[in-house]
Amino acid sequence: MTITAPARPATEKVYRTELSPVSFLRRSAYVFPDRVAVVHGEWRITYRELEERVNRLASALVAEGIEPGERVAYLAPNIPALLEAHYGVPAAGGVLVAINTRLNRDEVAYILEHSGARMVFVDHELVHLVDGSDLPTIRIDDTGAADDPYERFLAGGSPERFEVPIAGEEQTIAINYTSGTTGRPKGVMYSHRGAYLNALMEALESHLRPDSVQLWVVPMFHCNGWCFTWAVTAIGARHVCLRKVDPTLIWELIDREGITHYNAAPTVHLGVVTHPAAHRVERGLTVTIGGAPPSPTLLAKMAALNFTPVHVYGLTETYAPYTVCEPHPEWESLPDAEQAQLLARQGVHNIVADPIRVVDAEMNDVPRDGKTMGEVLMRGNNVMTGYFDDPDATAVAFAGGWFHSGDIGVMNPDGYIEIRDRKKDIIISGGENISTIEVEHAVCSHPAVLECAVIAIPDEKWGERPKAFVKLAAGQEATERQIIDFCRERIAHFKAPAAVEFRDLPKTSTGKVQKYVLREQEWSTSRSMT
Amino acid sequence: MTITAPARPATEKVYRTELSPVSFLRRSAYVFPDRVAVVHGEWRITYRELEERVNRLASALVAEGIEPGERVAYLAPNIPALLEAHYGVPAAGGVLVAINTRLNRDEVAYILEHSGARMVFVDHELVHLVDGSDLPTIRIDDTGAADDPYERFLAGGSPERFEVPIAGEEQTIAINYTSGTTGRPKGVMYSHRGAYLNALMEALESHLRPDSVQLWVVPMFHCNGWCFTWAVTAIGARHVCLRKVDPTLIWELIDREGITHYNAAPTVHLGVVTHPAAHRVERGLTVTIGGAPPSPTLLAKMAALNFTPVHVYGLTETYAPYTVCEPHPEWESLPDAEQAQLLARQGVHNIVADPIRVVDAEMNDVPRDGKTMGEVLMRGNNVMTGYFDDPDATAVAFAGGWFHSGDIGVMNPDGYIEIRDRKKDIIISGGENISTIEVEHAVCSHPAVLECAVIAIPDEKWGERPKAFVKLAAGQEATERQIIDFCRERIAHFKAPAAVEFRDLPKTSTGKVQKYVLREQEWSTSRSMT
């Protein structure tokens, strides 16, 4: 069976081509056909092969009946099949829905249902998550062998250039579901245009070059791997896949594959840089940090290993990174602690984004004093086109012509923003706002602390007070009293934790602490005690 | 007098901002306000100051009556005022017409007339070029002092943020007139969108970083400095101005200002790398070469100085660079001559361009054999929106939905193109096509030759035959016979020059050899001789 479709045709305008990241794969396959594009264990896929596999996927999807705009779901770790989906699904005219693999079966079923996915590709280790679904399902054994059902699916397509033209660059390329810690997950729509511009931006901000080698630590299902699925391909660099975030394996690959770049949340980076195999890398690594601000400890350890951090901030709704903490050369002469403090700020709008704002309840900009808290707003090419099939939620998020992030931050005199909290996390104690992040920074600067999370707990007198959950570093000890006293020396007394509990922190698949788990525990306990 | 206009407003879509390179200046002024943006002799302009000067220019232009879409002309060397025009004119809603300063008064008058320029800014050394014009004229003394008429004009504007919103990103930002060696010059229109995408591409392809320092060798009036006027600002790097291309001064600035990047045609590069002051630069320089292919000699000299060449090719109609000769690591192990041959090819479409084509008269792609000649075609975001006020010429150039470059090239088996000639330069000898560039390469590989140009001369028997004009390297000697014999050992006998003349080559302001000058001389002589 061969399905033919025209190559991406000329629009009527000679001077206009609709922006789409699919063109990046086409170009790299044209320019660097024999360069290794993807490494997965012993398996190496050149750019020519990658494009052929993508053509096979796209043409087989169309043969399967996928119509322009229809959704195709994936449940997979960071393997070649999921990278291929980032090109093959849009080349088929479809919309990629890469689902978080840490969700449970009900959550997955909700997303499959809500997105209206027409079919689902699922990694062999995750098949239980689609049990009971009546969607056409293709299992990915991730072997690359002819009897792998995914490979059989590709074999049904054609390696010839195949691309269903898009109607326009604002068409949806992917839907990424939010984590849904409050209410049902929402489907965040990315456009071809947004994905294209973000990819160019990431390549610039992370200094990607054709000889770069990206290790796939951040999940590709998470904001399409912060759009690096497209950025790394755009520049003709190499993807190194990783089924599982395992610091031992990460260090093996850093050495064996000559890794130059990887992205992760601070907790994951911490696991890497504190691992026994950690060592200085002479060629240097550029590591992008997102999901939470890097601690001074993390930055110091990175410097010792010759890692250059790029600190970014954003949300699923902003294609992941919206801001970057652009470093200034003058900072290098400052004391380490001060430098770390500057680098831990979320920073400024990236090169393709509009200026970010921090506003009060009336949408007036807060003063640039580094103190007045307000909600963070964004807009422009770096913002989702809306929530899929949810005009009400979109209207709320876009109220007043700006995307409301739900993050509370301050604007510093130099125009760099600093996130103080999620709107729902902020602690209101005796009428004062307390940023849980500020308290966490104080707790984490205690030398015995590896990581911590602070939430509001109910308090009869003050309404709410902060409680810290602390994981100590290996071999370290500290008491509740010591931690509290340590904090009271550093921040206002009313901001210091009222209680400290030592435990492992519950985390999402992307390494973010699940504060709602801690909160549920505390508030249900408290309530039952009243 | 204060004119106010809204800051670039939200479009109706929260997720869309019209692409415009003016946003790059806004961002760099926001992120790096105290960083030096522009160096001009002893004068240093920070990004904050640059934005304020641009706001002044834009608001003063509007106060002067410039309406959206109206043209503002400039005649200036690479000085701060011309860089400012690249932001201030579009921020006023206007269209920049930066005129080639080597033109004569009649040619300038034609462009002022044809473009419908509403006013003209002219450098104090070029005032004679607008003598007799009745347009409002602002003289630029290039002193930065309060009594400089240009500075007085800025003083009339306001430093507050000022920007007339554009109706859409396809609106014209600049008109660049072709050199007009055949017929009248044509006005090539660039859009905000095209300029924006090209700037991001240049930053990626030339590896610009925020700590880069660009020396302004290529004229800013030439395709807006190959769009580097916007690219360097986008990344927050530094512009170093240069009134005059003088290798002595270039070497002084390379050392004094820590230059990391400059762009030029090969003849200019040759002047730099063969200059007595030339020396190895430890930090390295990235030098973009366009206008003609780099010779093996030039590449070897660059390598010795630690210069990394980026060879690009394009036309005024393609925002300058359309292709880049993307190097492959494997080439590094090849013998120097072979490497140079590969690097001298024009290469592949850049990261924001559509694939380039080489076609026969019926617009069918020629075989990828490195031999069959055809016309080079381009399309997409890297192509002009058309010729200003010349729908007929636009229709001819865009025939069949592609831009016809008028360049004759071949497609190599690896997909890299090689330009063999301008359509009008190609020599037809006994029914065979001879590429003047191929003959030039043969002549230039003679050790005594510094540079050369080959044109067709009339021949009774063969119709046309090649003649070489040669400039010998300092202190070198060679005879006509020696050059011809040398060539006959390297290329087919019928391609070797029938005659050789030793002389300085006539050049355009951008360092391109003016073959038409040589041709006029030869053909008028010949004609008068028949």
From TrEMBL, chains A, B:
Pfam families: AMP-binding, AMP-binding_C. NCBIfam families: PRK06187.1. InterPro entries: AMP-bd_C, AMP-bd_C_sf, AMP-binding_CS, AMP-dep_synth/lig_dom, ANL_N_sf. Residues 26-388 form the AMP-dependent synthetase/ligase domain. PANTHER family: ACYL-ACTIVATING ENZYME, BUTANOATE--COA LIGASE AAE1-RELATED. Gene3D superfamilies: 3.30.300.30, N-terminal domain of ligase-like (3.40.50.12780). Belongs to the ATP-dependent AMP-binding enzyme family. Keywords: Fatty acid metabolism, Ligase, Lipid metabolism. Residues 438-512 form the AMP-binding enzyme C-terminal domain. PROSITE patterns: AMP_BINDING. This is Fatty-acyl-CoA synthase.
